[in-house]
Amino acid sequence: MRGNPIPIPPEMLGPRELYRDPGDLQTVFNFYFNAQRNDEPFYESKLLIVGEGGAGKTTLANKLKNAEFALRKDEETTEGIDILPWDIDHPSGNDLRVNIWDFGGQEIYHSTHQFFLTKRSVYVLVADDRREDTDFYYWLSIIKLLSDESPVIILKNEKQGRQCAIDERSLRSEFTNLRPILTADLAENNDKLKKLSRTIQNELCQLDHLGDPIPAHWGSIRAVLENISGSRNYIDLREYFDYCRGNGFSDEKEMLAASQFLHDLGICLHFQKVKGLRKVLILKPTWATNSVYKILDNKAVRANYGRFTDETLEEIWDEGDAAQMRDELLLLMMEFGLCYEIPRNPGQYISPQLLGKERPAYDWDDTHNLILRYEYNFKPKSIFPQFVVATHEEIENQSLVWKHGVVLRDGNTRVEIVEEDRYHKAEIKIRATGTNKRGLLSSVAREIEKLSNTYDRIEYKTLIPCNCPQCKTSQTPHTYEWNNLQRRLQNRRYEVECEISYDQVNVRSLIDDIAVPMVGDGDRADFAERGGRSSPFGTRDVYYIDKQIIQNQDMGNTINQRHSGSGDNVAGDKNVNTYNSNQQDLADAARQIKELLDQLSSDYDTSTPTGQMMVGAKAVEEVEKNPTLKKRVIGLLKGASTTAITELIKHPAAKIFVEGAKGFMDAK
User: Residue 62: which residues within 8 A CB-CB, separation 6 or more?
Assistant: First the structure.
């Protein structure tokens, strides 16, 4: 349904990454046809005001609503987020409801930007000319990353008439969504301020989604929830269903679709996939987030480097709805990746954003490490603390963690992950040591990629280390871009030169030395491919299998294969060790069949049934001539179903080959 010129809000269609939530087609159809029969044009948008603390964001928000708003010298810095409604005229003659989001500028709030900086919005970046501390590149980069080219207006707040220079040409060359750069003194009410207001209103009125039809009863429930939010911060799910039934809804699935739609728009919060939160609709996102920020802003918590307890929560969330909703608010912090409970220490928590920068002392065996690096053009500040939250159970002794680094342990295998303390042209470096370093490093890499890929437009490089004799023992090996290695394999270029030793290195061995491939299970295993990104740690054509489970669908048996070959052994360029030979034969058979089918495919069009039949039949003939491979193929046929083997080989002619090869078993 995506990409069609029909007025269905993108929020209804779900995220592009299918592994997250593919959406429900019937609900989409119901939404569309209900909107055609009984529509309510949607005229609502967001204006997000961002910038450093004390730049004048709150003053601007109030000035837009009321030009006569008097500037107060003792105005307090915004803690968390404030939302102000602003009604303006749309050229269609309809009233346009604008929700002005005024963000606190403190860095601790940056960790939640990904939840609130959204598409279908207009942004104003406020810069204080006196202080000259605005990081234009950071703000423009994070907006570009999260908002899909939403327009950005820069306001230089000329406090006391002072101006600063901006390299406008450089900014415009990189950020095509940058609109006018304006100046105004927010302490005054003059023509500059009027021009700023007109410019903002003009950008708001040009947003594409305005006027799109939504079903009238969806508009009704949105209005009902807004009215209730005037006196209540949240309602339970049953109560929400009752309100929906009273406003034209009959199907609970559609009611949940409506609450998800409002959640995606930032009108309410409903985490339907989170146990403990799914039965609550938070009507005021600002109440919830500001309650969370009270923990992160607490002086005692900050002085204790982000550590707090249940008693701390009772002291801070000590009255009203916050006291009643402590468990839910704590879950919200965990859902945002803002804290985790310390394993084996119930009631004690850490917020990794507040950890100290100093690296703790620890020993590290730097011989024969596996080293992997990720290089980001722009690295959001939230990725690393969220990674720490996601992997906190493996933190060594629950003590080797600091603001920009962590050491994880699994048995006698350790992995150190360190990020550079910057966001522009920054890297995350991983190094592993121990007996299962490839397996643990692969798990770490998948988690980093999963978090990185939640940003649709993020750009990063995966740098694979060289495994030539000189680089293998080095802490600074030569590296190869994953995309480059992948292209080499696609073009049958199986060797690449190391730029340090000038040795020729086997490409497949480079990949298999560092990465344990995953097997697609129809769910989340192949998240990288489904997210539109290739990864050595996602599913890929199998040359060698480290942990492969083949389900025998015919007999109900499961074969669990485990072995730990590496380097050229993995690539099949040398004789392989004889350990675990039966299981290895199955993996080798799958690899050899795949390579054989690839070779034969060069003479036929395997997108056609005829081509598939020819390639499959010729492959059977070739295997018939090779007694060793024939024996392995028979073992593979005994160990798994046709479906499982076909999925393992992943070739258009695989099924034809398998059906033909079954004759080997009949002929003994």
Answer: 69, 84
